[in-house]
Design goal:
Distance between the termini: 31 Å
Number of strands: 2
Radius of gyration: 25 Å
Structural class: mainly alpha
Number of helices: 5
Shape: flat
Helix content: 55-70%
Order of helices and strands: HHEEHHH
Number of domains: 2
Strand order of the largest sheet: 1-2
């Protein structure tokens, strides 16, 4: 919808769907910004490790891996894929219709 000619060639239904899609995309962008702000706040959390007379503040998360373990997150996704493959037995031959039914009935 960058050009007026594109908009003029659309049906009213297409225009509304594109408008809704843009609004959803903007909400997703706002979500990401708010999530980033929340994570920034959490990353800067400190705790008092000193005494009352000599207070000393230290960050709760000493390094990035304490805050977010990237490798562990990747492993969890890989584990889900491995478990999914184990569930599908290669010995059992399913028809394309049965495969489609199984795929479409999965709850995500």
């Amino acid at each position: 919808m960058n050009r007026l000619a594109d908009v003029e060639q659309m049906t009213l239904t297409e225009f509304h769907y594109k408008r809704y899609a843009r609004e959803y995309k903007e909400i997703d962008e706002e979500y990401r910004m708010h999530k980033l702000a929340f994570l920034t706040r959490n990353a800067s959390v400190t705790e008092n490790t000193g005494t009352d007379k000599k207070p000393k503040e230290e960050y709760v998360f000493k390094n990035f891996k304490d805050f977010f373990d990237y490798e562990k997150a990747l492993e969890s996704v890989d584990q889900e894929i491995k478990e999914e493959k184990k569930k599908e037995s290669p010995n059992k031959k399913l028809s394309p219709a049965q495969l489609a039914l199984r795929h479409n009935s999965r709850k995500e």
